Amino acid sequence: MKSPFAVFWGVSLALLCAAAPAAELELQGSRLLVSGMLDGTAIKAFEEQLASGHIRTVVFENSLGGTPEVASEFAQAIRANGVNTEVKGQCHAACAYAFLAGKEHRFGRGFQVNGLLIPVAGRPRPADLVSRWNGDDGVRTLSDFIAPPAEVAPTDTAAAATPAQASAAVTVQAAAPKERWQANQGVLFVSTPTLFGRVYNSFYCDGTQGRDMSRCELLSDADPYKLGVLTP
């Protein structure tokens, strides 16, 4: 029998996935609320708001999906302006890497379940987690999903290939980083409110769980504060 938390989590994600609106911006004093999927439609307005100098904190609320390219654009704007970031509700995929770019990055207060799903290409080892998202390491990790593979010296076989064959090979190589990016595959950090304070858990989701996060694998020794995913 599934726990009440697993049922609540599944219902919440189902509602979010059903809507999946494009990103919307709402100015709240010195805080900029960003909700919906980061699909690039709001990046110019986002950059203009941060460039104004009035924003101190970017709050991401219930943002799922998105591409690594869009994540990089939002992250660059956040890093360039030195603002803080906060998550209220769910922040997955593109939103997660944008969140990590904040000068300080925290989960929001309140009674909501906060979840941060950071895409990874495969199940990370404990040693990998230590340096994967701490400081500038998050930038390098994201760039792995975007940058094309290193060039390989041509072989005799490659030299003899027809232009059409060579073009096909380049297309496959260029697509490789994007194929590693799966919005539902990654490390999930969850903060759940209780009567005794918040409880933090970390999971690895292989992408087959769909909306049933209870199928994700619990990770030990993956404290989000120790890993630099959350700042005090």
**What is the subunit organization of this protein?**
single chain
Mean pLDDT: 81
User: How many strands, what sense, and barrel or not for the largest sheet?
Assistant: 9 strands, mixed
Low-confidence stretches: 1-18, 166-175
Rg for CA atoms: 19 Å
Q: Please bin the fraction of helical residues.
A: 25-40%
Structure summary, number of beta strands: 9
Reported by name, the CATH topology of the largest domain is 2-enoyl-CoA Hydratase, Chain A, domain 1
Secondary-structure element order, N to C: HEEHEHEHEEHHHHEEE
How far apart the termini lie comes to: 35 Å
Give the helix tally. Answer: 8
Give a structural overview.
Helix 2 (43-51) runs parallel beside helix 3 (68-81) and helix 3 runs parallel beside helix 4. This protein folds into 2 domains: 4-141 and 181-219, 2-enoyl-CoA Hydratase, Chain A, domain 1, CATH 3.90.226; 146-178. A hairpin with a 2-residue loop joins strand 7 (185-194) and strand 8. The chain has 232 residues and is an alpha/beta fold. Strands 1, 2, 3, 4, 5, 6, 7, 8 and 9 form a 9-stranded mixed β-sheet that branches. The chain has helices spanning 4-19, 43-51, 68-81, 94-100, 126-132, 137-143, 156-159, 163-180, and strands at 24-28, 31-35, 57-63, 84-92, 105-107, 114-119, 185-194, 197-206, 217-219. It has 8 helices and 9 strands.
